[in-house]
Design a protein that fits this description.
The structure is a single chain. The protein is an alpha/beta fold. The strands form five sheets. It has a seven-stranded mixed beta sheet with strand order 12-13-14-11-10-16-17, with helices on both faces. Helix 15 links the parallel strand 16 and strand 17. The relative contact order is 0.13. The model has no long low-confidence stretch (mean pLDDT about 95). The protein binds nicotinamide-adenine-dinucleotide. Nicotinamide-adenine-dinucleotide binds next to helix 8 and helix 9. The site of nicotinamide-adenine-dinucleotide (NAD) has 29 residues, from helix 8 and helix 9.
């Protein structure tokens, strides 16, 4: 029997109803993709890249439909357009980088056995499952799908059930490039569909919460398939004594509230040197109070609604927990209107690490501020989290770099925040529960989809069995 799901509508009103793929649909699609993958992998790199270039053109032609669908599902217009541009930029990036990376020959002589010459052959992993979240529905699917396809894999994607509208116009663009349509499919559905997709694949790229990441990791572990997990964050921003206060407030605010804080690399904790604290807090409050919401029109204002209304409840609960424990809320908070939920940037002081908003991911425009006395204290506070996705340090550059090197975070922005959203070509590895597996950024973002097979050529006579025969050990007295 068909299973229908309803996606949340972030601006209120009735949500989008769609059919979830059943386990049999997943198996059928996986069989079809796997059968076509060998031919796709056998194509010259340029032919695969040319199919991806045609796809990019088709998406560009369908940009209005794609952006409209994203806008409807995420409740924001400008970021939806930027999201499509970002996805197209990822395709262009791999067009430039893939030819060298995929044709690079790794060969030489073994150091431990000098008569053995080696050469590496690269073999695509096969069928890759790409499971993605709702915060950047298109970009976070293509960020893994495109390099996997460029590497010669087939891809079965399962985007979030909260934001499914873009899939129909996207699949129309895929169908316009038949060689690509043979190796790329995208199925709608919730957790059950996701689990079936993981079960059908040879490797999995998952972007989402830590809780789901653990389940996907367990399932991949059971099947012994590679899993690349990109999970949550609780990014700290440190304002050192030699930072500029106004600039620091501007960076902290943008880093925290952009996309309504619904980005994994959002700043969720701010630590300010005690000498700047009294100037920083009012500056941040003033700047935060000037932020506008797009409650009236989707294409007006700074911040859109929460995409998933359950996120608003979670943010509200974290704010209530902080206030109950003595925190002071200086500005901002939830705005519920016409069935949608927004949040004006909330600046809190009087906070401490016993509060949920320091422990759990917030995914909302909430900025708790604490002061510190020494660099050691700032480092300890920033590292006091199970997450380790990214971080930011503001101050004199050499000073900031020395503090950054002590943080347990996969990427640290110096004198800016959230630079990983702009820098896709630099490798980084998460700490803690923020992720597992080789970097999706930089060259490994492509090379991780290729298994290296070592071809080992013996150039000297092969060793006889007698070389390994036990012989009675001769002692000094025998001689
Ligand atoms: P989620 O974990 O709830 O869902 C992510 C995806 O997993 C969805 O498509 C969902 O249907 C699917 N899913 C759920 N259960 C599954 C299961 N058992 N097996 C397979 N698939 C399953 O995450 P979300 O709420 O959609 O997204 C928000 C989270 O994503 C936040 O924690 C955020 O930090 C994280 N995120 C991380 C990055 C990163 O690059 N590290 C980027 C963006 C978002």
């Amino acid at each position: 029997m068909a299973n229908f799901l309803i996606a949340a509508n972030p601006r209120g009103g009735s949500g989008h109803r769609f059919r979830a793929a059943a386990a049999t649909d997943v198996l059928e699609s996986a069989d079809r993709l796997r059968a076509a993958q060998r031919d796709w992998a056998a194509l010259a790199v340029d032919d695969r890249l040319s199919a991806l270039a045609q796809w990019s053109e088709a998406m560009r032609s369908a940009s209005e439909d794609l952006v409209d669908a994203l806008t409807e599902d995420t409740g924001r217009a400008l970021i939806s357009r930027a999201e499509l541009d970002g996805a197209l930029a990822r395709i262009a990036h791999w067009q430039r980088k893939a030819p060298d990376l995929l044709t690079e020959i790794s060969q030489g002589h073994s150091e431990s056995a000098p008569s053995v010459r080696y050469q590496h052959r690269r073999d695509p992993l096969g069928l890759v499952a790409v499971i993605s979240p709702w915060n950047f529905p298109l970009l976070l699917m293509l960020i893994d799908a495109v390099p996997a396809l460029a590497a010669g894999c087939a891809v079965l994607a399962k985007p979030s059930e909260q934001t499914p509208r873009f899939v129909e116009p996207l699949m129309e663009t895929v169908r316009s490039v038949p060689s690509l349509a043979a190796v790329f499919d995208c199925l709608l559905g919730g957790p059950e569909t996701g689990a079936a997709v993981v079960d059908a694949a040879d490797a999995v790229c998952f972007t989402g919460s830590v809780a789901t990441g653990r389940q996907v990791g367990r399932q991949a572990g059971e099947r012994l398939i590679p899993a690349f997990l990109e999970l949550g964050g609780k990014d700290p921003l440190i304002v050192l004594a030699d930072a500029d206060v106004q600039e620091a407030a501007r960076i902290a605010l943008r880093g925290s509230v952009l996309a309504t804080g619904q980005a994994c690399q959002s700043i969720e904790r701010v630590y300010v040197h005690q000498s700047l604290y009294d100037a920083f807090v009012p500056e941040l409050i003033a700047q935060a109070s000037a932020v506008t919401l797009n409650t009236e029109r989707v294409d007006r204002g700074h911040l859109g609604p929460f995409i998933d209304p359950r996120q608003a409840d979670l943010v509200e609960a974290q704010l209530e927990d902080a206030l109950a424990q003595g925190a002071a809320l200086h500005c901002g908070g939830l705005v519920r209107q016409d069935g949608g939920a927004w949040c004006k940037p909330a600046v809190l002081t009087g906070t401490n690490h016993g509060m949920a908003l320091y422990r759990d991911e917030t995914f909302g425009p909430v900025i708790p501020v604490m002061s510190f006395a020494t660099d050691d204290e700032a480092v300890d506070l920033a590292n006091d989290s199970e997450f380790g996705l990214s971080a930011a340090v503001l101050g004199e550059q050499a000073h900031a770099l020395s503090v950054a090197a002590r943080l347990r975070a996969g990427a640290v922005s110096i004198n800016d925040a959230s630079l990983t959203s702009q820098v896709g070509d630099v490798e980084k590895d998460s700490y803690g529960v923020s992720g597992v597996g080789r970097s999706r950024m930089g060259p490994s973002g492509l090379l991780r989809f290729l298994r290296r097979q070592a071809l080992l050529v013996q150039t000297a006579p092969a060793a006889p069995l007698d070389a390994f025969k036990e012989v009675e050990r001769r002692t000094v007295t025998d001689a």
